[in-house]
Amino acid sequence: MVWLVRYFIRKSFLGAFLIGSSLFLLLGCAVSPITKEREFVLVSEKEEIEIGRKMDPKIIEEYGLHEDRKLQEYVNQVGQKVAQVSHRSDLIYRFKILDSPVVNAFALPGGYIYITRGMLAWLNSEAELACVLAHEIGHVTARHAVYQLTKVRSYQILSTLGAIFIEEYRVAQRRYSDLFDLLFVGILQGYGRKNELQADSLAIEYAFKAGYDPEASVSFMQTLERMKDEPKKERSFFEGLFASHPPIEERIDKNREKAKAYLVDKREVIRLANEYKGKIEDLLYGDDPRHGTVIGNVFRHRDLAIEVTFPKGWKITNEKGRLLVKNPKADHIMELTSHDLAKRITAEVYARDFFRKKGLRLISGTSVRINGLDAFVSVADGRVELVGPVRLKMAFILKGDKAHHLMGLAPPYEFKGVEEVFSQSIFSFRVLSADEAGAIRGLRIKTYKVQRGDTLTSIAEKELGEAEKAPEIAKLNGIEVGTPLKEGDLIKLIK
Question: What domain range is 217 assigned to?
Answer without folding.
Answer: 1-281
